[in-house]
Amino acid sequence: MSRSLPTPSKISQPFWDSCKAEHMQIQRCEDCGVYAFYPVYICPECASRKLAWMPVSGKGTIHTFTVAAKSSFEIQGPLVVALVELEEGAMMVSNIKTATPEALSIGSPVRLTYEEVSDEITLPMFEPA
Length: 129
Prior knowledge:
The chain has one helix at about 15-20, and strands at about 25-30, 35, 50-55, 60-70, 80-85, 90-95, 110-115, 120-129.
């Protein structure tokens, strides 16, 4: 079974375009400064509609994670799914690319990497920093 791919929407297309360019951007509220992920029309902190797409550092830490020793997806090695807190404060669910998941822990630093999975979609992933 191959991996399910996201279908970009009007609101998420800038995010997917930035991942394709390998310079991920997420929204930042121009009123309160909070970074928001997944793409939204209204700031989750102050309800402002003034959201701008901003580049992120690509640095983060593992907030929590799980390891699936087997997966029905066509991937190499264990499947690590994590909630990553970006340096900018937003949280995102992604995969951690590692051959040694036992070396991971909550609070481990990670850095952004990308995996091109189709002509249209490049997935943001993380690896140990």
